[in-house]
Structure formats: C-alpha cells, structure tokens
UniProtKB/TrEMBL annotation:
GO terms for molecular function: methylthioadenosine nucleosidase activity. Residues 1-42 form the signal peptide. The lineage of its organism: Bacteria, Pseudomonadati, Pseudomonadota, Betaproteobacteria, Burkholderiales. The keyword Hydrolase applies. This is 5'-methylthioadenosine nucleosidase. Pfam families: PNP_UDP_1 (PF01048). CDD domains: MTAN (cd09008). It is an enzyme of class 3 (hydrolase). Keywords: Glycosidase, Hydrolase, Signal. Its EC number is 3.2.2.16.
Amino acid sequence: MKVKVKGIPLPVSKPLFNTLRRSASALLLGAALTSAVGSAAAADKHCLTDCKPRIGIVSAFGAEADILLEQTQKKRDWKINGNRFTTGELRGNPVVIVLSGVSVVNATMVTQLMMDHFHVERLLMSGIAGGVNPGNHVGDVIVPESWAMPMEVYWNGDGSLPAPCGTAGDVGCLGVRLATENGKPRPDFKIDTPHGQVSSGLFMRENFVMNAGNAPQGEFRFEFQADAEMLALARTLKPALAKCGPKNPALCVSVQPELRVGGRGVSGTAFLANPGYRAYLYDNLQAQVVDMETAAFAQVAYANRVPFIAFRSLSDLAGGNDFKDVGAFFGSGLAETNEANVTLAFLEAWSRRSQR
C-alpha cells in the first residue's frame, strides 16, 4: 500500500496505515472538541466588552456609589449606550460598578447591559431606601433575604376576587397570575377613609420570568431569593455604623444604627409617600424596606442565574412624617455612608474567603 507525502508515493504497510488513519481521526476529533468547549466557555462569559470575572455592583444614583468609586483601584471607565461602567479592584475583588438611575425600568436595563458586556459572577446592589418596618431606624442597613414587586398588580373594579377566566382568583387566561399565600390570593390594598376602609381592587401579581433553566414554559414567581452563601457572610459582619453623617456632623440620629439581615424587601414604580400603603406592605408581606430598583435587579439576576445580594440603608420611614430622624439623612449623608461601609466590609470579607 502506498500513501503520498508531499506528492511522493511511499510504501506503507496496512497495519501502519490503519494506525496513521486512527491517529489523524483522533487529532481532528480533539481539535473539534477543543473548539466547541472553547466556544461554549466564551459564550458562558457574557462579555461583549470585558471578560475578566468580576462582582457587579449597581447603585441607583451618584451619592450611593461615590464612596465605592473613590476607593476603587486600577479604575477604567467604559461607555456603553451612554452608561458609564467602571472596572477595577475594590477591597481585593475585581469589580464593575454602574449607576442605574432611579426606577425599576432603569435598574432592569442597566443590570442586563452589565450582564451582557462583562463577565459578572455575582451581583451586589448598594444604596439607600425607605423603611417599611416601623421597628427599624434611620441609618440602619437592611439586607433582605428576598425581594418582591407587590406593585405589579391586577386592578379589579372592586374588592372582590377577579374572575375573568370563570373562577374567582383565576386570571390565567390573560397570561398573568395572582400572588398567593397558603394557596389563597393575597388581599387587596384597603384605603382608609373617614367612613372606614374601602377596597382599592389592587391585587398583587406574580412576575413571569424565563431563563435557560425553566425554558420553554418559563415560570411565575412572586419573589427572588438572595444568595444563601452571601447572606451567611453578611450575618458575620460587624461594621462600624455612624450616628452622624459626614456632610453635617451636627445632625445625628438618636438610635445607634444596626446591620439587620433577613426579611423581605419590596420595590415598585411609585416613590412611596403613603403611610397606608406602607402599613399594608408591612402587615401583609412583613416587608422591611422599599425602593424602586432592587426587585427588578433581583429578577435580572435570577433570569441570568447569577447569585445576588442587596444592601439598603434607611433614609426615612416611607411616607412617614412620624420618623423624627428623617432630617439626619437629608442633611448629613448618613444613610449612604452606612450602606457604603457595609458594602466595603462585605467585599473585604468576601475577598478573604475567596483567598482561602
């Protein structure tokens, strides 16, 4: 048997020919597998711009992120669709930091933009929020175990359970689903009037979300769970929290702020200044804190299957003039200072843990 090498026919025994053929096939298969694995790995990185594994940090507006950006080293700015993403190292961790702007829509868009352009292994929300639990105080930093969007609603004409699909509480034929507790729809919001409470007809809904793990049918969820590993580390922190903010040290809170891990956080499209609705959120959901971004951020994290955690420092009791320390936040910058201190303490602890 003869084979051609550079066009020259050479005699080769049949056993040797078979060995060469098998070796060539193995090399081709190995190259194909290497190429396929490499392509899959590149696709999993979600990095149109920068592929270094990082912790993604999102804040809603400037004051919340300024302290973090000031302490970030080896900074580099990236402009993506007008948004500034800053990469660098913060307390020993590779990070990418961005301001989302206020609102659930902005938080959703910018968080997904971060996921698409950077290799984000974990997500962290850092900012300020309004208090819901009257037992908490201005300057406290709250780290909820889960986040929900109760202002995603079915607005019925009255307080009776909606029944557009024939059965009370069934709205599935419309492509939506009411939020339930123990198998029953959660109660609608009641408005206080001089003549007693009046039903608003606003019933909480669950959110539809799809990702690679639940496709093609997707799923409905009322809330999104923060990462258990990150929560466990947060419970070990002993950060120094201030009573007086740096902008005006003469304005101080009367109660020493604390770090509180646990409970539920809620987000919505409304800037909440309604004590009645705040009480409804606390009575029915045991909500601790309310903002306009984190639950949307959490849904993006879930859709991308990326672990997340959120730190929110209380600026006031949402819609409550009875929160006597509210002036301390607006005058001194206390809330953003405390949330930044907790975020930095967490990142430092996370870096030590990762090194071990």
